[in-house]
Specification:
Blueprint: E1 39-52, E2 55-66, E3 76-81, E4 85-95, E5 101-104, E6 111-114, E7 120-123, E8 126-131, E9 139-149, E10 166-178, E11 184-188, E12 194-197, E13 200-210, E14 228-232, E15 235-238, E16 241-244, H1 248-259, H2 267-277, H3 283-297, E17 299-300, E18 302-304, H4 315-321, E19 323-324, H5 326-339, E20 345-349, E21 368-373, E22 380-382, H6 395-398, E23 402-407, E24 410-415, E25 425-434, E26 440-449, H7 454-462, H8 465-475, E27 481-491, E28 497-506, E29 511-513, E30 516-519, E31 541-543, E32 547-556, E33 561-565, E34 570-574, E35 577-586, E36 589-598, E37 601-603, H9 608-621, E38 626-630
Parallel strand pairs: 1-10, 7-18, 17-19, 25-32
Antiparallel strand pairs: 1-2, 2-9, 3-8, 4-5, 4-9, 6-8, 10-13, 11-14, 12-13, 15-16, 20-21, 20-23, 21-22, 23-24, 25-26, 26-28, 27-28, 29-30, 30-38, 31-37, 32-36, 33-38, 34-35, 35-36
Helix pairs in contact: 3-5, 4-5
Length: 633
């Protein structure tokens, strides 16, 4: 399944008994749950028992009916385990459309494989998994497991609907803790839990008859659409370390303890730091010099062994091995800066194309570590796993979100740099000519700044010239064209940019009809998104990125032609963005200018028709044509 599943061989006495023959017949699924569904969760029962701070037992049973081939990807069992997690039991059963048992899982059919990825030098992560690979629809699978966690830092999230096209007939989770233990939780789209008190305290959430979700264009984060509960500890333990997660300061103290004594540099590296920085006059120069040293002398590789998944390898290890993961490299960077007399902080962050952390719910929501060099408005941020980024640039991977500074006093939430449409700019100038056969030659010069150029940064550092040319051929939207030259020049800074130069030929770009030539002057920047304004919108709109796109195009047209038809200037303004374009013919020079600003933001569902209208107007304006007619002899 998409999420990690924890199933059980037994569960609470109050919950439904195991199915008898025919109980899982697909015909018993309520008709309303079949709409838009590829899978129906018939019954999902999870029991989480906190036995002590160093032991948690999780038992779960999942029964799902797969309705069609698109549901097959959900119908498997996968369990990860490591030093802190053991899989006590795994069982499964396959049923046909009538709910008749077909087969059970044999132990020999459960695969046990390493979870070490390509970037991992070593870790103790493994996983067991199984699939029946059944292809006669509908069918039902039942999986059950029991897991023992030797830690209490991480609780499972309750997300009974974990993807679109999944309907839920019944799902329940019960979390049982000692009666004096403070369990912390945050609910989305569901009621507060039923809480039972006795020798133990139980928290219970339940869901029944939930229809499948179909995502819409620019849907908000999943937790804002479906029932979703985050669960976190107060006091917790992992390995021999204990901590408290009731606020960010306390959680930061835990990370600080893990890092203590791990910033000691070898004497040779101390000497190198002073060699690099003692002659420099400014703090920024010193930071840049040490960051460049890190980039040139280390590389990223993941090592996740035991508590090493949360605690960095020490600075001496990184200096001797010349590699480390994000934790080790960031800790090493902090040590280098400390030797140069510069204060910096090891910083936890949730990186990637993800929503920001939930700041009002202190918990382990992080997946990455960076380095912060504080200095008010001139604070510098360092992505220590990158060998190509400029010092100070976070970009889309870690920018525009909250992070947790780890200080000796504890944790402190801060914000990383935000990149707006004023920063993320793609500015293009094109000089082109069209002959009487409609063939086009063009010199395209483009500057990509900040996030607008991240796909270009990655391409030029990771691909060969042949692969870059293949990429350009796929991305440039022109018929019958050939690239005759291309090159790139990178400009490293806290707001980096890259210059792109492309020369190309496009046969029959302009349409010829008798005495007339039809030209679309917007060569490379057409809006391709069109939305149906009449479509009924269910969810709010979440536009997650913003940028500015500017095009200045000059096309030399054949001599002897005059203007017959020209589209009027366009100017659009909406809360989602601004757009303007204009055309003019000056002698045989056709000049076109276009500017589009796109804004991020959260908008109500009722504003969808306005968004669709704005996109449609841009779409049509981008395809405006100029009609030139040949002068009479």
């Amino acid at each position: 399944m998409k999420k990690t599943l924890y199933f059980s061989l037994f569960f609470l006495a109050s919950l439904p008994a195991l199915a008898g023959d025919g109980d899982y017949a697909a015909s018993k699924i309520p008709a309303a749950l079949l709409k838009n569904a590829h899978v129906v969760i018939r019954n999902n029962e999870r029991l989480v028992q906190l036995k002590s701070l160093d032991k948690m037992v999780i038992r779960e049973k999942m029964v799902m009916t797969v309705l069609d081939e698109k549901g097959d990807r959900f119908a498997y069992m996968a369990e990860a385990y490591d030093k802190f997690t053991s899989i006590e039991s795994m069982d499964g059963t396959l049923y046909d459309a009538d709910g008749k048992k077909l087969k059970s899982v044999r132990k020999s059919e459960i695969k046990d494989e390493s979870g070490t990825g390509d970037n991992n030098l070593a870790d103790d992560h493994r996983y067991k998994h199984h699939s029946f690979y059944h292809k006669i629809y509908p069918y039902t699978v039942e999986y059950e497991t029991e897991i023992i966690e030797r830690q209490s830092m991480f609780y499972p999230t309750w997300d009974p609907v974990d993807d679109e096209h999944i309907a839920v007939e019944h799902s329940v989770i019960v979390v049982e803790v000692p009666k004096d233990y403070v369990l912390r939780y945050k609910c989305y789209n569901c009621v507060e839990p039923v809480i039972s008190n006795g020798d133990k305290k139980q928290y219970k959430w339940e869901l029944a008859n939930f229809s499948a979700v179909t995502l819409e264009f620019a849907s908000p984060s999943w937790k804002y659409i479906v029932p979703y509960v985050l669960i976190a500890p107060s006091q917790f333990q992992i390995d021999d370390y204990t901590g408290n997660m009731t606020d960010w300061n306390e959680f930061g103290k835990f990370s600080s303890v893990l890092n203590q004594g791990r910033d000691v540099l070898p004497d040779a590296i101390k000497q190198k730091v002073h060699q690099l920085t003692d002659g420099l006059s400014t703090r920024e120069q010193k930071v840049d010099a040490l960051y460049s040293y890190l980039q040139n002398n280390t590389h990223y590789i993941s090592i996740q062994l035991g508590i090493g998944g949360w605690r960095p390898f020490d600075a001496a290890y990184v200096s001797s091995k010349a590699y480390g993961d994000c934790k080790a490299l960031s800790n090493y960077m902090v040590a280098l800066l400390k030797e140069a007399g510069i204060t910096s902080y090891y910083t936890l962050i949730k990186a990637g194309e993800v929503q920001d952390i939930i700041t009002e719910f202190p918990s382990q929501q992080f997946n990455h570590v960076i380095t912060c060099v504080p200095n008010g408005k001139d604070t510098m941020w360092l992505e220590c796993t990158s060998q190509t980024k400029a010092a100070g640039y976070m970009g889309e991977f870690t920018g525009n979100r909250h992070a947790l500074l780890i200080t000796e006093q504890g944790g402190r939430l801060v914000s990383t740099p935000s990149y707006s449409y004023k920063d993320n700019i793609r500015q293009r100038t094109i000089k082109a000519s069209i002959n009487e056969e409609g063939h086009l030659t063009a010199q395209v010069r483009t500057n990509y700044k900040a996030v607008a150029g991240e796909h270009i940064y990655g391409m030029i550092h990771q691909l060969s010239n042949d692969k870059i040319k293949e990429y350009l051929k796929e991305k440039i939207d022109l018929p019958n064209f050939e690239i005759t030259q291309f090159s790139y020049k990178e400009n490293r800074s806290q707001l980096p940019s890259v210059d792109e130069s492309i020369d190309l030929l496009a046969n029959h770009y302009a349409s010829i009809s008798g005495k007339r030539i039809f030209v679309v002057p917007n060569l490379l920047s057409k809006m391709n998104t069109r939305l149906d304004a009449t479509e009924e919108r269910k969810y709010d709109i979440e536009l997650g990125s913003e940028n500015t796109i500017v095009d200045s195009v000059e096309i030399t047209v054949p001599a002897g032609y005059r203007l017959e038809a020209l589209s009027p200037d366009t100017k659009l303004e909406a809360k989602f963005g601004k757009y303007s374009s204009f055309l003019q013919l000056d002698g045989n020079k056709l000049r076109y200018y276009r500017r589009l600003e796109q804004y991020k933001g959260h908008y109500a569902a009722k504003e969808y028709s306005d968004l669709a209208k704005f996109y449609d107007q841009v779409y049509k304006a981008d395809r405006s044509r100029v009609v030139l007619v040949k002068n009479e002899q």
